[in-house]
């Protein structure tokens, strides 16, 4: 709706962050060139200052203003943009310093969502935007999730309904000679490696004093208030241990939620979410779309313990297990 885009642009011009939908999760955006506005984003979210932001653009011309584009990046933009792929590139002068958290590089992507693209085009500048939630909590896949976290902190949420994909973008580092995936996502290693034969998976193991190149690398993310136990491995062992832990929790009068993905275990918690399908690709897509939503539903119902099945770690499953591991307090893996 043009009226709401216009209102959003007026807030952005005043340096006031607003929330908007993308195909992955909702973002909290402000001009990538306005340091005071970027500082407001960090304050609203409670975000660590060394955690860089991703810059969202509506066209390649906007990329060339903020970053140096190499031939690899040009090809990948042509193939995967607009879409859930963030490219880490050498940055140019002019960006608000906090966008890149003091690094010489910046993450850039073109979202595949009409509201996001219309907003950026109408504003006429790139928007720096992390997810529109309190740092560390599950990412927002609906406008209601943004409202639950940020009500009273942002003046406008552009409601585009539920996001299509539900997990954040793949982050690909092209700022050095060695291309590497820093955060897995819907654009998978397999999809990218056909264009980058020497591609590495470099999901971070950072030392405490190191600054992360990408969001999602250093800090605990995606976690609800409820404790998450993550289970993965041989089906009978997974189902047996989940049943044991469920019985123990219920004996202690804990409120439980069970999220079934890979194995049709016969379990019944206080809340039950069944994403199982004989078709693995369908299961992975459904899990990506609904995982964070189910975490938030569990919190809204006062759940104490979430028993969560893992997924096969290939294709989209890499991204899902990345998010699940970061959210889980306890992990039970049967090799």
Helix content: 25-40%
Terminal Cα span:
51 Å
Q: What would you report as the Rg, rounded to the nearest angstrom?
A: 20 Å
* Shape annotation: globular
User: How many discrete structural domains?
Assistant: 2
What is the strand arrangement across the widest sheet?
A: 1-2-6-3-5-4-7-8-9
Can you offer a commentary on this structure?
This protein is 34% helix and 17% strand. Strands 1-2-6-3-5-4-7-8-9 form a nine-stranded mixed β-sheet, with helices on both faces. Strands 12-11-13-10-14 form a five-stranded parallel β-sheet, with helices on both faces. The protein has helices spanning 2-13, 35-45, 60-66, 71-80, 114-123, 143-150, 189-193, 235-251, 280-300, 316-327, and strands spanning 18-20, 27-31, 54-56, 85-90, 105-109, 127-128, 170-173, 180-183, 200-201, 227-232, 256-260, 271-274, 305-309, 330-333. Helix 1 crosses helix 5 (114-123). The protein has two domains: 2-201, DHBP synthase (Alpha-Beta Complex), CATH 3.90.870.10; 227-333, Rossmann fold (3-Layer(aba) Sandwich), CATH 3.40.50.11030. The chain is globular and about 60 Å long. 49% of the residues are buried.
């Amino acid at each position: 709706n043009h009226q709401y885009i216009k209102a959003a642009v007026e807030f952005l011009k005043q340096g006031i962050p607003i929330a908007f939908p993308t195909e992955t999760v909702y973002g909290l955006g402000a001009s990538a060139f306005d340091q005071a506005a970027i500082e407001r984003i960090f304050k609203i979210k409670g975000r660590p200052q060394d955690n860089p932001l991703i810059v969202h653009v509506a066209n390649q011309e906007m990329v060339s203003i903020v970053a140096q584009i190499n031939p690899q990046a040009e090809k990948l933009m042509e193939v995967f943009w607009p879409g859930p792929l963030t490219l880490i590139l050498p940055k140019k002068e002019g960006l608000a310093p906090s966008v890149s958290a003091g690094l010489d590089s910046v993450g850039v992507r073109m979202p595949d969502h009409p509201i996001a693209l219309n907003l950026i085009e109408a504003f006429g500048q790139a928007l720096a935007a992390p997810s529109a939630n309190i740092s560390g909590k599950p990412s927002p896949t609906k406008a209601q999730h943004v409202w639950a976290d940020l009500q009273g902190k942002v003046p406008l949420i552009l409601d585009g309904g539920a996001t299509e994909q539900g997990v954040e973008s793949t982050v690909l580092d092209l700022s050095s000679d060695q291309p590497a995936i820093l955060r897995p996502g819907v654009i998978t290693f397999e999809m990218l490696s056909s264009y980058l034969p020497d591609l590495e998976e470099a999901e971070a193991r950072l030392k405490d004093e190191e600054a992360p190149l990408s969001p999602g690398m250093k800090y605990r993310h995606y976690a609800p208030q409820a404790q998450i136990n993550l289970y993965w491995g041989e089906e009978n062992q997974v189902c047996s241990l989940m049943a044991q832990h469920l019985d123990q929790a219920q004996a202690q009068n804990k409120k439980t939620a069970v999220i079934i993905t890979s194995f049709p275990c016969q379990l019944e918690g206080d809340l039950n979410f069944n994403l199982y399908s004989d078709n693995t690709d369908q299961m992975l897509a459904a899990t990506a779309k609904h995982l964070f939503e189910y975490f938030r539903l569990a919190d809204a119902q006062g759940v104490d313990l979430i028993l969560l099945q893992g997924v096969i770690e290939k294709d989209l499953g890499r991204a899902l297990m990345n998010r699940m591991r970061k959210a889980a307090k306890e992990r039970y893996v049967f090799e």
